[in-house]
Amino acid sequence: MADDAPPRMRATSVSIGTPRPRQAAAFYAALLGWRVTADDGPGPGEPPEAGWAQVAPPRGETGLTINLEHERHFVAPVWPARPGEPLASQHLDVHVDGDLDAAVAHALACGARLADSQPQGDVRVMLDPDGHPFCLFV
Q1: Taking 90 as the threshold, does the pLDDT of residue 4 lie above it?
Q2: Does 136 lie in the same domain as 95?
Q3: Do residue 81 and residue 66 come from a single domain?
Q4: Could you report the per-residue pLDDT of 79-137, keeping only the tens digit for each?
Q5: Separation of alpha carbons 70 and 93, rounded Å
Q6: DSSP 97
Q7: What is the DSSP secondary-structure string of 34-61?
Q8: In which order are the strands placed within the sheet that holds 35-40?
Q9: For residues 18-27, b (16+ Cβ closer than 10 Å) or e, as one string?
Q10: How far is CA 50 from CA 12, 20, 44, 59, in A?
Q11: Is residue 25 situated within a structural domain?
Q12: Residue 31: domain span
């Protein structure tokens, strides 16, 4: 490797701003069958719903962790995007092994909502309890 080569880098997590990080972590852990690996309460002077949490794949599996960070001024994004509305600048894509309809039913049971707009037949756009979109696909 040349001395001027860039350092090796890899993405390890995605962070999502939310008004309720610990509840959001519980949602994603239930949805994905993962585990909550961090569950920190509010700091001094912060509201009771503040804090930070993390969800990780089951032991022995690799993958990105999902970090849930308290966002004091959170406004739920609008999907699909509309001018002048809060933008969902990113979303999670969740691969489904098997039956997409069963995955949607599971997501709904965990507290997700089905988005009104469904632009693809083999993808379901869902909204988490805070309104963040995520896609289930086969």
Answers
A1: no
A2: yes
A3: no
A4: 999 999 999 889 999 999 999 999 999 999 999 999 999 999 999 999 999 999 999 99
A5: 22
A6: S
A7: -EEEEEE---TTS-TT--EEEEEPPTT-
A8: 13-18, 65-70, 52-56, 35-40
A9: bbbbbebbbb
A10: 23, 6, 10, 27
A11: yes
A12: 10-73
And the tokens for 51? Answer: 């804090």
Q: What is the mean pLDDT of residues 19-45?
A: 97
DSSP state of 5: S
Number of domains making up the chain = 2
Indicate whether 115 and 88 sit together in one domain. Answer: yes
Q: Of 73, 91, 112, which marks where a domain is finished?
A: 73
Position 23 in a domain: yes
User: Which long-range contacts (C-beta less than 8 Å, at least 24 apart) are formed by 28-37?
Assistant: 28/55, 28/66, 28/68, 28/128, 29/55, 30/110, 30/111, 31/94, 31/106, 31/107, 31/110, 31/112, 32/57, 32/94, 33/58, 34/58, 34/66, 35/59, 37/65
Q: Give the pair of three-digit tokens for residue 21.
A: 């990080």
